[in-house]
Amino acid sequence: xxxxxxxxxxxxxxxxxxxxxxxxxxxxxxxxxxxxxxxxxxxxxxxxxxxxxxxxxxxxxxxxxxxxxxxxxxxxxxxxxxxxxxxxxxxxxxxxxxxxxxxxxxxxxxxxxxxxxxxxxxxxxxxxxxxxxxxxxxxxxxxxxxxx
Length: 148
Known about the structure:
Helix content is 39%, strand content 22%. By secondary structure, the protein is of the alpha/beta class.
């Protein structure tokens, strides 16, 4: 299954966040702006980190925010946020975070497939740094191999 498209509205580059919650609000807000989710989805992403800890910080400098499929997901969607200054999530090895991905998927099976696709993309250790340095949405899409 290919990754969801990444429209311009879902890409936020060089953003400022004072905390991991703010970083997740940016990623969730980009999902909302692109029409993939509603505001409660952002709250659900934050709630999962509050409940389970910083498990979404999957590699050095990279957080992969998501929540369970549900009524707050309008369609499959992806967002990418790069931070001007990294934020700490509390992960023992992978902090601080400069790139936050947001993922919204409508169906449970697709949820796991999309997570697998994204994990495969970041098997290349250079991807996070290249995303952090990207200056346009087109550059982000090219690095991730997704469409608008």
